[in-house]
Amino acid sequence: MNFEFNTELISNYKSKSQIIRVLTEDWVERNLYCPICGKPHINRYENNHPTGDFYCNSCDSDFELKSKESSSGKLSKTIVDGEYSTMISRITSLKNPNFFFMMYKNFSVYNFILIPNHFFTPEIIIKRNPLSPNARRAGWTGCNIDISSIPDSGKIFLIKNQVQIKPEIVINEYKKTKTLKTNNLDSRGWLMDVLACIEKIPDKNFSLNQVYSFENELKIKHPTNNFIKDKIRQQLQYLRDKGFIEFISAGYYRKI
């Protein structure tokens, strides 16, 4: 895999956004396999296609590409996206795309991750302030994607610090996360939030009380729920059944 952009493509472009779009989409089209089924190449949709930027005609998966320049090349906490209501509509649909996030510097890819569509919840889409009345698109409201709120299990590296991860590892990581897939947005939100809490616990073995310590944090995210501890236990059981954690003894678990 070649990490360099093909800068010969941009000689006739002036707009920075167009330049980056051309370079990054060309790189993906030339270099990327399908991280879900392993097909050697994925296809590019025409510009402004409503379902995404790329697709795999083998497993029928859609992908949307987001890229960001970084002086360090490291993964950013947030990435700018488009119109807020459009983004909310997309990720709450039954055909929401998977997302590619690319961090690059000096026209070279440094980090590239897949975030499966079942890790996206409305809570990670942060609404920006509307454009001022004097702006050309007055009232238009954009958004940012808060990547830092997504559990690490949902950030599957294809390239990490300019080292390519073996495709078989990537595909297996995706298969593991697929067991968490649910179309119920409330269930998805709870599952992702509790999983993120578990990942914040530094030790491999952890207790129920350690997860309970996130009760206030979860209450802020789910203000209408008055049974936070019950929900925590429910999600732990689900994560145990799906093979993400294992039960050791009463009140104690181990990360797998």
Summarize the structure.
The chain has 256 residues and is α+β, with helices and mostly antiparallel strands.
Can you characterise this structure?
This protein is an alpha+beta fold and 256 residues long. It contains seven helices and 13 strands.
What structural class do helix, strand and pairing data support? alpha+beta
Rg (C-alpha, Å): 20 Å
Overall residue-averaged pLDDT value: 92
Unreliable spans are none
- Shape, please? globular
Strand adjacency order, main sheet: 1-2-3-5-6-9-10
User: How is the biggest beta sheet arranged?
Assistant: 7 strands, mixed
Number of strands: 13
Share of residues in helices: 25-40%
Number of helices: 7
Distance, first to last CA: 31 Å
Order of helices and strands: HEEEEHEEEEEEHHEHHHEE
Query: What portion of residues belong to β-strands?
Result: 15-25%
List keywords for this structure.
7 helices, globular, alpha+beta, 256 residues, seven-stranded mixed β-sheet
Strand and helix layout:
Layout: H1 16-31, E1 43-44, E2 54-56, E3 61-69, E4 78-83, H2 84-91, E5 98-105, E6 108-115, E7 125-127, E8 142-146, E9 156-160, E10 163-164, H3 167-178, H4 185-200, E11 205-207, H5 208-212, H6 215-221, H7 228-241, E12 245-249, E13 252-255
Parallel strand pairs: 3-5
Antiparallel strand pairs: 1-2, 2-3, 4-8, 5-6, 6-9, 7-8, 9-10, 11-13, 12-13
Helix pairs in contact: 4-7
